[in-house]
Amino acid sequence: QVQLVESGGGLVQAGGSLRLSCKYSGNFFSLHDMGWYRQAPGKQRELVAAMLSGDRTNYADSVKGRFTISRDMAETTVYLQMTNLKPEDTAVYYCNAQLRYGTRQEYWGQGTQVTVSS
Question: What is the pLDDT of residue 41?
Fold first, then answer.
């Protein structure tokens, strides 16, 4: 069974930075695509950044050039470095893991709140 635990959220002023962490517990970390999603009040959950096979990355247009996703295989942890934060980045950020093969099983963390003040 896979468990994901996020940390690193908080309150920051516009223009500031935060780094989110997602600790993956379970087997076969390397066989999962990892992603960060966010959900703001009254809005749908959206993909922010993803790390796929071969360390390919995808980013939402709204965060390109500001956010960076990375993965530490030894620590089985995924990070989201967020810089030049804007008030519109305020949301609950969720870590996601999806098995690349077979069942394509998905797992979610509990979320961590990021609030950017203007």
Answer: 93
